[in-house]
Design a protein that fits this description.
CATH class: Mainly Alpha
Mean pLDDT: 89
Largest sheet: 2 strands, antiparallel
Number of strands: 2
CATH topology: Cytochrome Bc1 Complex, Chain D, domain 2
Order of helices and strands: HHHHEEHH
Distance between the termini: 45 Å
Strand content: under 5%
Radius of gyration: 17 Å
Low-confidence stretches: 3-16
Strand order of the largest sheet: 1-2
Number of domains: 1
Amino acid sequence: MRALPALLLLLASLAGHAETPQQIRQTYVAEAASQQAGFAPSAKRGEALFRQRFAINDKMPACTSCHTDNPLNAGQHAVTGKTIRPLATVANAERFTDPAKVEKWFGRNCKEVVGRACTPAEKADFVAFMSEVR
């Protein structure tokens, strides 16, 4: 019986580490604002980044190469064929809730698709778009 309260306390502390897409977006907004006065995230710019084609990688020239044109749908990695859960937060409640995972995937995907690290402003815009897609 003593293990149950300890387990509940552990689960509550783990849940406290989860963040919302809005909190993650605000982290990027704060970083962007320190570099660009008056920065405000734009879902429209986020959508443009999502749909933009880059000449860096023939197999993955755009986010849509793996994530499809509709972020509400599951995608498939262009090289490995692995299924990718939807990017839109309304279709995937876990998306943009773990800061470490968000940074990991922005780091990897920006380098592979865009050809460089994405800026905090681009990340804020991208998360804004994925949070507003319906």
